[in-house]
UniProtKB/TrEMBL annotation, chain A:
Keyword hit for Transit peptide: no
Name under which the protein is recorded: TransglutaminaseTgpA domain-containing protein
Positions with biased composition (Polar residues): 604-616
Annotated source species: Nocardioides ginsengisoli
Residues covered by region (Disordered): 306-329, 556-616
Keyword Transmembrane: yes
Matches recorded under SUPFAM superfamilies: Cysteine proteinases
Automatic annotation (TrEMBL), chain B:
Keyword Transferase listed: no
Name of this chain's protein: DUF58 domain-containing protein
Taxonomic superkingdom: Bacteria
Organism (species): Nocardioides ginsengisoli
Sorted UniProt keywords: Membrane, Transmembrane, Transmembrane helix
Pfam families: DUF58
Domain DUF58: 200-341
Length: 798, 408
């Protein structure tokens, strides 16, 4: 345990370099948040403390496992303290810590990077995982001295953002981490040198009293490291990125269905943004274009609305006419309007903004739609709407105000999901849904009453700043309670959709743009403050129909068909005087400016690039099976290939002239790992080999006996082979044949013809040689014959 | 290129493999950030092997060993001077001297702080408990890169030989009758009649008796010369070592032959220290004159495959001298040889190894029984087992009952 004799300097240096390296690698995560110092500052403190404690522990000779344990404990304490304020994660602090991490995870899932300061903080997650990586690198690289292993941890740190951020991690953090890693490698290699032998140098006592930097530069560390890092920065620019999607391989045999999960609305941030960013410009013959739908949220889990699953077949692409919307009666009169859409560079979405219902959509790229929702999504991960131009024809349906097209939805018209109400829905929602719609005779009237209640009778106020977060059950409860009733479009749309479902009306939430600004000449512009959410309800005869529960403070007009008075109540077009005290746009929201404007709004999802694509069942199996089969074949070829090559060569050579037989003996000896000094005479080699002959008849032993006395027949056979080779090589050309002919009978052993005897002899010698080595060497000779490799390499080097 | 790649260490190869995999995966799955990492990891070992491979200049090395002749158990020092006149600096150089296993630990040095045109001297001790002739060298230099990815080995310099002689045990002085031909008081007489006067004077030293001044020589030399009273070559002794394969048991350092060699070496050194001219004889005949030469011979002595002792050394030249025989087991036909030696020698002394005690399978009746046949041939003999002290056995010989060739 007395490693105390080591100087403290090197141990401290190693620890500090490891900590700094990890920290530099963690700067790659800075793209996740707007305020990078929120996690980098505490991490720097943690890294410093860990480096100090670690180097002290290691210097004092504490056992490795104890050091690792103490470091882990210290990390836990610091993380707990930083997040909750108390030192140990016990009791309430544990709960608090858990909650904070849970909130961070939710935020990270819900919002696109970079995540601002107006949402629940995400830094606890970054801090905790960064701390885990720092302590991991410290343990692996410093305590257990496995610097290359720590490189894997650094790689993990570095590759996280490349999966989530569009432009990947910064090159600066790569250079920092790479330099740190190289220094770590060098320090470790240097320490290995001191352990290898006695250092002799100008300063004999220690490596560390010299100039480590000068020494490293002399050894070429600078040259090698800088060149490699520079190459790593430059070369990727010239490396083509194929981006092969393995799971797309089976496109031809299936319909290429794609399921999309969980795109999440990040609307509030964009609405709260001070600056109203123009996003989409349209040119249309529609006199008053309004709602432009981006996406539909089908699934209500009780926590949030999500888009649910989509089934988009590869034939359902946005390249022209679309099928008639589901459930829409043929009798409904409509007007067609043409739209030319130009999406600005600031609108990054994997969902295509379209009219609903639409007659046709023509856009370049693989935009696909689900016939039930009729929203368009990018089927390829790298496809988005930025800078896209496309055309569409929208249907302006005239349902009239008499409700004649609105029939109650029949069972089976829509998937059950659109009617499902999770168990946790507050009872107030159920009771209110019943009481508000009391007296209505059909679903249409119920829907009208619901909308009127939200806009007029319920006493709701539109206030973006005081609105609760999210759309979950708890939010719903406070939003519907008499003391609440403050919210913004998301809550209104969600509440109405949930209550409609409670009443048995299929309902969903649509996300998109509300109202464009006219720029004249038939050109209109949607901006980020126009983002909106509204419910869509399904009726037999009309299909999915838009309703507008958001009060007049935000939305001034409602669709004509929803303006019908029900139950004697009047529903003024403009609605009652709004109780909303805050205009939704302009100066009010301008007060809530973030520390800096975001680079661009993103409507749909953090995970736009993370759309998981899955093959349909059979083709996946085919692909996986094919790959596995290929690997098996390759492995089989690698194993059996050399073996069969050797076997064929052996048969051919043994049947040949003495020179070939001699070559085969040489190859066999090399395979078996026996010495075969090149450039010796056959006789010399023969005397060497005689000692290695074993008895082929004996069962395999771990250490077989060898020698001429063990295998006398093989020894004789070897002697004959040697003599034949000598005769071929050294006898005069004219006499060799004759003497060979005369020599064979004089051998007295065989009366057969010469070559056949020689073949048998050599086969016997090979068998005896094989019997004379350990079973392991024999197996190696069979499966990995070294002589084949030698032949190959010689052929290549020639 | 192949040579450069073959110099990669395991870590270097792992880096190349991991980096190549990373690059391929990055290209296939479209992750440019991963490409960066992959290229860094794959280029590091390649660049390192390129840089190390360019260092073609070999340093020069000279090696001295002192002393060249070494007793087993003693320590010799080896000095290495390694120099390079290369203009570029190489960083660190690892050198390892190739040592036989018996000479002890690895001689490894890390030469560091090497600038341009450097010279370093390192020295290390070697020590062996096993006799033999050892080859030291050549030096293996390893050139490494600063990241532990590449290691290139080169062999530089020649080799030297180091002879390790058998261990020598100090023996007590015992009376050895015989061998002193006309020694003692008869010597001046011999001078008076002999012709060796000129060589038997030496310079006067303080304390010499004035009566011993040899005036005639003094007059000739111009310096006081005195007569020498005794001469170193006046008595001669032969140490016979039976190294026949059949006479010994056991293998390697634990064999009875090794004990016999130690005994023979000790006796030879002891006799020379007491003024005898010592000659070594083995089963193959006369081997060496003088104790130093005998030790050197014994250092590399191996078993003989003869079945009879070669007695060509015995005879006129050995007549009257002391013969100390270190014998193993008796073989057929030894009786005649031993009788002849006894006949020729002035005094015949034998240390008989009870060789069966070295064999794990045989049971021996005891050292005394081993010596008995010689006693009957009127040798002075003592038995010796593996656990017996050589000096004690030697002392026993001094009290030996046989004297003057008569059996009591």
């Amino acid at each position: 345990m007395s490693r105390r004799s080591e100087p403290f300097g090197p141990a401290f240096l190693l620890s500090v370099v490891a900590a700094v390296t990890t920290w530099l690698a963690l700067t790659a995560w800075s793209g996740f948040v707007v305020v990078q110092s929120s996690y980098l500052k505490p991490l720097a403190l943690l890294a410093f403390l860990l480096a100090c404690s670690g180097s002290l522990l290691r210097w004092s000779g504490t056992p490795r496992w104890a050091t690792a344990l103490v470091q882990l404990l210290l990390t836990t304490v610091i993380v707990t303290h930083e997040i909750t304020g108390s030192l140990l994660p016990i009791g309430g602090a544990a709960h608090e810590l858990w909650n904070a991490l849970g909130t961070s995870v939710d935020t990270a899932r819900q919002y696109a990077a970079p995540i601002g300061i107006h949402v629940p903080p995400v830094w606890p997650l970054l801090f905790a995982s960064g701390a885990a990586f720092i302590v991991l690198v410290d343990i692996v690289a410093c305590t257990y001295r496995r610097v290359p292993g720590a490189g894997l941890a650094l790689l993990a740190v570095y590759s996280v953002p490349s999966g989530f951020l569009d432009d990947g991690p910064q090159w600066t953090s790569f250079v920092g981490a790479a330099a740190g890693f190289l220094v770590l490698l060098h320090l470790e290699a240097r320490e290995h040198l001191t352990r290898w032998g006695r250092p002799v140098g100008p300063e004999e006592d220690s490596l560390w009293h010299g100039h480590p930097v000068v020494e490293a530069m002399r050894a070429g560390a600078g040259r090698i490291g800088i060149t490699a890092t520079a190459l790593a920065l430059i070369v990727p620019a010239f490396v083509p990125v194929l981006g092969v999607d393995l799971l797309h391989l089976g496109k031809g045999n299936g319909n290429g269905d794609i399921q999309i999960r969980k795109p999440l609305v990040d609307m509030r941030r964009d609405l709260e943004r001070g600056k109203d960013v123009p996003l989409i410009r349209i040119k249309t013959n529609d006199p008053s274009p309004s709602y432009l739908r981006v996406s539909v949220l089908n699934r209500y889990t009780g926590d949030e609305w999500s888009s649910g699953d989509r089934n988009v077949a590869s034939k359902d692409v946005a390249d022209g006419p679309l099928p008639r919307p589901q459930g829409l009666s043929q009798d409904v009169p409509f007007t067609k309007y043409r739209y030319q859409v130009d999406v600005g560079d600031d609108f990054d979405s994997t969902w295509l903004p379209t009219q609903f219902p639409a007659a046709s959509v023509t856009a370049t790229g693989d935009w696909r739609y689900d016939p039930t929702t009729m929203d368009f999504l990018a089927a390829k991960g790298d496809l988005d709407t930025r800078g896209l131009s496309y055309t569409m024809v929208g249907l302006n349906l005239d349902y009239g105000t008499d409700g004649r097209f609105f029939g109650n939805a029949r069972t089976g018209d829509v998937p059950q999901e659109l009617l499902s109400v999770p168990t946790g829905v507050p009872t107030i929602a159920r009771s209110l849904a019943q009481s508000v719609t009391r007296g209505a005779s059909d679903d249409y009237e119920r829907a009208l009453l619901l909308q009127r209640w939200f806009r007029q009778d319920g006493g709701f106020r539109y206030d973006l700043r005081r609105a609760p977060d999210g759309t979950g059950n708890q939010t719903l409860e406070t939003f519907l309670a008499r003391s609440g009733r403050v919210g913004y479009c998301e809550q209104y749309a969600s509440a109405m959709a949930v209550m409609a479902r409670i009443l048995g009306i299929p309902a969903r939430v649509a996300v998109g743009f509300l109202q464009p600004q006219p720029l004249g000449d038939g050109i209109w512009e949607y901006s980020s403050h126009d983002l909106h959410a509204w419910p869509e309800l399904y009726f037999e005869g009309t299909g999915w129909v838009r309703f507008e529960p958001t009060p007049a403070g935000r939305v001034d007009s409602v669709p004509a068909y929803s303006r019908v008075p029900v139950d004697g109540g009047s529903n003024e077009p403009g609605g009652l005087p709004s109780q909303s005290s805050q205009p939704p746009t302009g100066s009010a929201t301008g007060a809530t400016t973030g520390p800096r404007p975001h680079r661009r709004p993103e409507v749909d999802t953090t995970n736009g690039g993370k759309v998981t694509t899955q093959e349909s069942g059979p083709s996946t199996i085919v692909v996986v099976g094919g790959v596995a089969l290929l690997i098996l074949l390759l492995a089989g070829a690698a194993l059996a290939g050399p073996r069969s090559v050797r076997a064929r060569t052996r048969t051919r050579r043994l049947a040949g002239d003495p020179e070939q037989i001699w070559a085969e003996l040489r190859a066999s000896a090399i395979d078996l790992g026996l010495p075969w000094p090149d450039g010796r005479s056959p006789r010399e080699i023969g005397t060497l080999l005689v000692d290695r002959l074993g008895d082929p008849a004996e069962p395999p032993q771990e250490r077989p006996r060898t020698g001429a006395d063990v295998a006398p027949e093989a020894a004789d056979a070897l002697e004959r082979v040697v003599r034949a080779v000598e005769r071929l090589r050294y006898a005069r050309p004219a006499t060799s044949a004759a003497s060979a002919a005369s020599a064979t009978p004089s051998g007295g052993v065989a009366t057969l013809a010469g070559p056949a005897t020689l073949t048998d002899d050599s086969a016997l010698v090979v068998a005896a040689l094989q019997a004379g080595v350990t079973p392991q060497a024999r197996r190696r000779a069979r499966w990995v014959p070294r002589s084949t490799w030698g032949t190959l390499t010689r052929r290549f080097t020639r | 290129m192949r040579r450069a790649l073959s110099s990669l260490t395991l870590r270097g190869r792992a880096f190349v493999a991991a980096g190549a995999t990373a690059v391929v995966c990055a290209v296939l799955f479209g992750q440019p950030a991963l490409t960066r990492v992959g290229i860094l990891v794959v280029t590091l070992p390649l660049l390192a092997s390129f840089v190390v491979g360019r260092r073609r200049h070999d340093p020069t090395v000279s090696r001295t060993v002192w002393p060249r002749l070494l007793r087993a158990g003693e320590t010799a020092r080896i000095d290495l001077t390694i120099a390079s006149d290369r203009r570029r600096s190489d960083g660190a150089l690892l050198v390892e001297d190739s040592l036989p296993y018996a000479l002890g630990g690895r001689a490894r040095f890390v030469l560091q702080g090497l600038g341009s045109t450097w010279e370093r001297t390192v020295s290390y001790p070697v020590r062996s408990d096993i006799r033999g002739r050892y080859v030291i060298g050549p030096l293996v230099a390893r050139m490494v890169d600063p990241f532990g990815l590449v290691e290139q080995r080169r062999t530089i310099g020649g080799t030297v030989q180091l002879t390790v002689t058998p261990r020598v045990i100090a023996l007590p002085a015992i009376p050895l009758s015989g061998g002193w031909q006309g020694a003692g008081e008869h010597r001046p007489q011999a001078f008076a009649a002999g012709s060796a006067e000129d060589v038997s004077v030496r310079e006067y030293r303080r304390g010499d008796d004035l009566r011993r001044v040899h005036w005639r020589s003094s007059a000739r030399m111009g310096d006081l010369m005195v007569r020498r009273e005794e001469q170193p070559w006046e008595a001669h002794a032969t140490v016979l070592l039976d190294n026949r394969h059949l006479a010994h048991r056991g293998q390697g350092p634990a064999s009875s032959l090794e004990s016999a060699i130690i005994a023979a070496a000790s006796v030879a050194v002891h006799l020379e220290r007491h003024g005898y001219a010592v000659r070594l004889a083995t089963a193959d005949g006369g081997a060496a004159e003088g104790a130093e030469a005998a030790l050197e011979e014994l250092a590399t002595l191996t078993q003989s495959h003869r079945s009879r002792l070669d007695l060509s050394w015995s005879g006129e030249s050995a007549r009257g001298g002391v013969v100390v025989a270190v014998l193993g087991g008796f073989l057929d036909g030894d009786t005649a040889a031993l009788r002849r030696i006894r006949h020729d020698a002035g005094a015949a002394i034998a240390l008989v190894l009870d060789v069966d005690q070295w064999s794990p399978t045989r049971v021996s009746p005891g050292p005394a029984a081993a010596a008995a046949p010689l006693l009957s041939m009127s040798w002075r003999a003592a038995g010796l087992g593996p656990r017996d002290q050589l000096d004690a056995a030697w002392r026993d010989l001094g009290r030996s009952p046989v004297r003057g060739g008569t059996l009591r």
